[in-house]
Design brief:
The protein is α/β, with parallel strands linked by helices. It is built from 11 helices and 34 strands. Strands 11-10-16-13-14 form a 5-stranded mixed β-sheet, with no helix packed on it. Strands 17, 18, 20, 21 and 24 form a 5-stranded mixed β-sheet that branches.
């Protein structure tokens, strides 16, 4: 509705300005003598504003008639008023307004007043979290707040990052469903299950800073640089203060501590750098830090592994709308919510993502929920296996079909890269399920992850891609190639030179963890392009040697069953899309049919339609 008060102020301003400078602009305050020859027509001019423009802003009309002005308004703005006394308004679609000036007798120069109308608030029905700051306050001095999350594509809700919540002398390390920390724990910005229209209460979890007198530090450019630790070296918890000397702690210097024995190390979110050799010969069981940590490396901890990582979010995500790997967190949501159901989980690199038709599997095995975790084969598989294992249980079936050329999938190489953290950007808590002690270049990879994120604008936790279906199958276009020829620029083959009797021990350790949860582990083979294999490997039928080595190792370390014949998955080049192990859609259908038959033969009628 027109704001009459603002209209009067605007009109008064323009009239006074016109009088002061002799302006002949406003019909409201100027009625000139018109020469006889020009009395029949009058000029109408509309001045464009910052929130609107006139499509026909300059007109000459017959005196006493009406002028029709077509206005285009910016999004969110509506017509409020104009400085002509007798007008009508007709609202049209897409922000357009027809303004009719009635009985125009004199030349006029118009200004329009618009009003911004805020979008309607989201529906009150949704996912509600009541946050109790448990001794802390936000920037407005509130000790609690409530957030309502609109229903979206994701099954679980990302919690508040609480970037403005503080408590003097304490570090905020996460949320908990109980005030004393005895309930379900969730990191800042990580996901939790919320029942629609049933408020969930979360409490801020605080850890008291370690005594500031135990730290040596220097002040430079309004920041504190921690240079040494003089406290007890055998402590349950070391919480580095976020402020020393009245300045924020931004760096931990090399040589900060040696021979430290601590269960939990807390790095404040203010810290951006941990220099090489900051922690030397230290034993740390758990580390809590934020995604503000930019400069860090494995050498920062003297290459001493830290098994448990807990990462809190401060920055907003960037990859959720940019990289397919982020679907891992969404797939884990569904897996976690299906803990009490029978599940069939398929794991490999992207050969599984491209090469499995999960709806067909679901139709054949109706008693099982189907999951396809075929996303990342070119980085450490151990972290992925640990996260998946956290949500499998009694009666589940775990099917692994590692790419035959991947040292990572066979756990012969435990080196990580930044994509490990892209997988969990939507839910950092997933990393806490992994044993990070065996991962090479873990902190190096985290630093790379944060460096790359600087190249993109930040998004939101609601961002997502539509390249995977609900099961985890890749659903982007990937037609069959149609020709029996190599796809890749370099030969891709079976890495039998990397496998010998006893080399798959690390893989079998992960299988053992799955078996201990009550799930059955089955081994199959990834599709590979026959026409992309080196000639000498074809001549020696290298696939049989590979199968034999896998059977020997898996049998030796746990009796794990190879359910397939590798030759069934050495497929013609016509079935592949853009690499020698990415199947096209028709190839995926064929491979899935063969894998279903292998599973039926092994499971002997359990959970499938006959």
């Amino acid at each position: 509705m027109p704001n009459k008060k603002s209209y009067k102020l605007v009109r008064t301003f323009y009239c006074c300005a016109a009088a002061a400078i002799g302006c002949t602009a406003l019909s409201a305050c100027y009625k000139p003598d018109i020469p006889q020859k020009d009395r029949e027509y009058v000029a109408v001019t509309v001045v464009d504003g910052s929130t609107y423009r006139a499509e026909n802003g300059i007109q000459k009309i017959k005196r006493g008639s009406s002028a029709v002005i077509n206005l285009v308004l910016d999004e969110g703005y509506v017509f409020s008023d104009c400085d002509y006394g007798d007008y009508d308004v007709k609202e049209e679609r897409d922000g357009k307004v027809s303004l009719v000036l009635n009985n125009v007798m004199y030349p006029c120069r118009l200004h329009v007043v618009t009003e911004y109308i805020a979008p309607a608030p989201p529906e009150t029905s949704g996912y509600i979290i009541d946050y109790d700051l448990n001794g802390g306050v936000d920037s407005d001095g509130n000790d609690s707040f409530t957030a309502t999350y609109a229903p979206g594509k994701r099954l679980r809700i990302n919690t508040s990052t609480a970037t403005d919540v503080v408590r003097d002398g304490y570090a905020l390390v996460g949320w908990n469903t109980e005030s004393d920390g005895s309930g379900e724990r969730v990191g800042l910005g990580s996901r939790i299950t919320v029942v629609k229209d049933t408020p969930l209460k979360l409490y801020a979890q605080w850890l008291k800073w370690s005594d500031g007198q135990d730290f040596k530090y220097e002040i430079a450019q309004d920041s504190a640089y921690v240079t040494g630790y003089a406290g007890l070296i055998d402590v349950s918890r070391l919480v580095i203060p976020s402020e020393l000397g009245g300045k924020p702690v931004v760096s931990i210097a090399g040589g900060f501590a040696d021979n430290l024995r601590v269960n939990t190390l807390v790095i404040p979110s203010t810290v951006k750098t941990i220099e090489p050799s900051a922690f030397v010969d230290c034993s740390i069981e758990e580390i809590i830090f934020s995604d503000t940590l930019e400069n860090v490396s494995d050498s920062s901890f003297g290459y001493e592994a830290i098994p448990v990582w807990r990462i809190n979010a401060v920055k907003r995500p960037v990859f959720l709308s940019r990289m397919d790997f982020t679907y891992f967190s969404d797939n884990m949501d569904r897996l976690m919510l299906s803990r009490d159901k029978k599940k069939m989980v398929f794991f490999a690199g992207c050969s599984m993502g491209y090469g499995l038709n999960s709806p067909a599997v679901a139709e054949s095995f109706s008693d099982y929920e189907i999951f396809n975790f075929g996303l990342l084969g070119g980085s450490d598989a151990g972290v992925q296996l640990d996260m998946i294992t956290s949500s499998v249980g009694e009666g589940d079936v775990f099917v692994h079909a590692p790419e035959e050329g991947s040292t990572y999938q066979l756990m012969l190489d435990r080196t990580a890269d930044l994509r490990i953290f892209v997988l969990v950007e939507g839910n950092y808590d997933l990393i806490s399920f992994a044993d990070m002690s065996g991962v090479k270049q873990a902190f190096d990879s985290f630093a790379s992850f944060n460096t790359v994120r600087k190249n993109f604008p930040y998004g939101n936790y609601t961002d997502c891609l539509d390249t995977y279906n609900e099961y985890g199958d890749f659903i982007g276009k990937h037609p069959d190639g149609g020709e029996d020829k190599p796809i890749g620029s370099e030969p891709y083959t079976f890495i039998v030179d990397k496998i010998s009797r006893g080399t798959l021990l690390e893989l079998c350790k992960k299988y053992h963890n799955i078996s201990e949860k009550g799930a059955e582990v089955l081994f199959s083979f990834a599709p590979i392009n026959y026409h992309g294999l080196p000639r000498e490997d074809v001549d020696r039928e290298i696939w049989y040697e590979y199968q034999s080595l896998c059977e020997q190792n898996l049998g030796m370390y746990g009796g794990y069953r190879v359910i397939s014949s590798v030759k069934d998955y050495v497929m013609e080049g016509r079935y592949f899309y853009d690499s020698d192990y990415h199947l096209g859609e028709g190839g995926a259908t064929l491979r899935t049919a063969r894998l279903i038959e292998d599973l039926k033969r092994h499971l002997g009628g359990r959970g499938f339609e006959k």
